[in-house]
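Much of what follows relies on a compact textual record of a protein's fold. Here is one such record, which you should read through line by line:
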Amino acid sequence: METTRVSFGNVTAVSGTPARIKHLNHCLKEDVKNGKVIVRDVTKRYLNLASNGQLANAAQNGDKIQVYITGRDVKKVKSSLPEWDTIEGILSHITSHIEMNRKSVGEVKNSLFTEA
């Protein structure tokens, strides 16, 4: 019997070249349309950040940074619950970071729908 992974909610930051991020977004088009994923581009937030963190480094090296919200966390954002009603609040709930330049689109998509 084949089983599927269950996600209770996930906020994942994904960094990668603009072309790779565009391809991932294209592959997630139906999931976004069906309300299974919310996508937010946060590249500008990290571009001029005085930090040496992974996301800031990726943005400063020309990568795009997108946040993908899945599972129960989608409802939290759509309902504008406290701490979920601003981009700062959403960013405070990041559970993982995926460097897309090191993984296939399929691996990234699978990770987005897996509990961290």
Remarks:
- The radius of gyration is 14 Å.
- The chain is about 40% helix and 20% strand.
